[in-house]
Write a structure and sequence with these properties.
alpha+beta; OB fold (Dihydrolipoamide Acetyltransferase, E2P); 6-stranded mixed β-sheet; 12 helices; CheW
């Protein structure tokens, strides 16, 4: 038995999958080929080498895609019906290799393989050449060990792309920090007192007004599902039952609950999934709103009680009011326990269940109105709330815990001799912050500031930094098990390992999660210096 196994392995090692790139023929050892697929949807990874097309989600695994044409400096062409991706496997790591077409499988004896000496730039990628017995053409055999040896984990320590730019940034950054420290010293007493209680809100629009929900009550923000089951005899605010993140939940219209004329749902409409607790009971539901704007971080003292003249039975669910931005916009803070008549909803659902049992003998699908507290604790450990935003055609994310607030782009003062990705400094309520253009930081072309762009105010070790992004998409829970470390091949590149991972969402989207410390400061140890 041992002899037979040894012979089989030797034969497999001499078999190669052959393929074409332009007019040239190449081969890969078949024992490293896991499968051959058609080109899937590929997510572009900024700052990657040119021959890295991006990454794709292959049955739950994040696989890097390498373009063979670009790797060997061949003329780039559009993908055709014959284009395939050869998925290679080595030591539990996968790599996708784009080829023009698959030719077949060739048996090549090891003694017939010659050294490759024609092109120095290709030598390290090609372990030898052999002749095709059928037509005497040359087959260049790729070195899979060399391909995989140039992969670097995105979660490893970053290598700085431009040390000179970094040094200049530190020099000017220290001046900004000095000014900020002086400002903090002048306002130290006020800051100490205020930072005792800081609150975060998800700001959303209903009608012509702006409202806020405590972020501790928010579990997710999604689009309105296409199918909603309407229930006869439901209260006016009860839109129906919908499937939200694999749960059937009641969906309420916030306009009806707030006594505002309802507007038609459009592309900006969102459903905010909330979990609230009242005594021994916990409730979950979806709230349909006109739009979701941002996450606001406010001092508790900034939220003022509703003026006495406005306190009525209809406004008892408004627990406070605050002003935000320089335009002095007003946001009303909503108390979900008093806004939503949970007891009425619970009784209505019980009546619906009883009616269905009497009429058909079968129960209706009971929505997850109640959430056990134990389940919530488990869910908290397994999921993190992330802010999802867009840069160019791709989506990125940051943990909400690192996001302090989101603003429209204010006036920015440029800093002489600063790196290109440093837009300058901005005055945030008397505090100077450094503003980075994430497009430029990730190796993309800058664009003109228009209405959609936002600045994410993030914090790293008590330092505030502004990040310009193209647009804000949503706030979403991401399960830890859905975040995968990704490797990127970067030979001969000073590559910035700026990703902490790639998240695979339930709707097949992929979100690249940024390593904030690396993105902002370049060197992993720079904050400690």
């Amino acid at each position: 038995m041992k002899t037979t196994q040894s012979v089989t392995t030797a034969v497999m090692a001499d078999q190669y999958v052959t393929f074409s790139l332009g007019n040239e023929v190449y081969g890969l050892p078949i024992h490293h080929v896991r499968e051959i697929i058609r080109p899937p949807k590929i997510t572009v990874v900024p700052l990657a080498p040119k021959y890295i097309e991006g990454v794709t989600n292959l049955r739950g695994s994040i696989v890097q895609i390498m373009n063979g044409r670009i790797l060997f400096n061949l003329q780039s062409t559009a993908k055709s019906k014959q284009t395939r991706i050869i998925v290679l496997m080595k030591e539990q790591r996968q790599l996708g290799y784009v080829v023009d077409r698959i030719n077949g499988v060739e048996n090549i004896e090891s003694g017939s393989i010659d050294n490759y000496e024609d092109n120095e730039s290709k030598q390290r990628w090609i372990e030898g050449v052999a002749k095709n017995k059928k037509n005497a053409s040359i087959i260049m055999l790729l070195n899979t060990d060399e391909l995989f040896s140039h992969t670097h984990s995105l979660t490893s320590t970053m290598q700085k792309k431009q040390d000179s730019s970094y040094d200049n940034h530190r020099e000017h950054g220290n001046k900004v920090v000095l000014q900020r420290d002086q400002e903090r010293e002048r306002n130290n007493q006020v800051t100490v007192n205020k930072e005792v209680d800081i609150r975060q809100f998800v700001r959303f629009g209903v009608g012509h007004e702006e409202y806020g929900l405590s972020i501790s009550d928010v579990r997710d923000i999604v689009r309105l599902p296409e199918k909603i089951d309407r229930l006869p005899g439901a209260p006016s605010y009860f839109l129906g039952l919908g499937l939200l993140r694999n749960q059937i939940l009641p969906i309420f219209q916030m306009s009806k609950l707030l006594g505002i004329k309802a507007s038609n749902s459009d592309n900006r409409s969102r459903v905010i999934i909330v979990h609230v607790h009242h005594g021994e009971k916990s409730y979950a539901a979806g709230l349909l709103v006109d739009s979701v704007s941002e996450i606001l971080r406010l001092y508790a003292s900034d939220v003022m009680p509703l003026p006495e003249v406005l306190r009525t039975k209809k406004t008892e669910s408004i627990e406070g009011v605050c002003q935000f931005t320089e335009k002095k916009q007003i946001m009303y803070v909503v108390n979900l326990l008093t806004l939503i008549p949970w007891s009425e909803v619970e009784q209505f659902m019980v009546d619906q269940q009883v009616r269905a049992d009497k009429e058909t003998g079968d129960g209706i699908i009971t929505p997850n109105l109640h959430i056990k507290k134990d389940n919530k604790k488990v869910s908290t450990h397994q999921q993190d709330l992330h802010l999802i935003f867009r840069i160019a055609d791709e989506e990125f994310g940051l943990p909400v815990s690192q996001v302090k607030e989101i603003l429209r782009v204010p006036e920015i003062l440029s800093i002489p001799h600063a790196p290109e990705y440093i837009r300058g400094i901005a005055n945030l309520r008397g505090q100077l912050i450094t503003v980075l253009d994430l497009r430029v930081r990730l190796g993309l072309e800058p664009i003109q500031i228009v209405g959609q762009q936002r600045i994410i105010i993030a914090e790293q070790k008590n330092q505030y930094i502004g990040l310009i992004v193209d647009s804000i998409r949503e706030v979403q829970k991401i399960r830890i098990k859905d975040i995968e470390e990704c490797e990127v091949t970067a030979p001969d590149h000073d590559y910035a390992n700026y990703l902490s991972g790639i998240a695979k969402l339930s709707d097949h989207r992929m979100v690249m999660l940024l390593h904030l410390k690396v993105v902002c400061l370049g060197k992993n140890d720079s904050l400690d210096e």
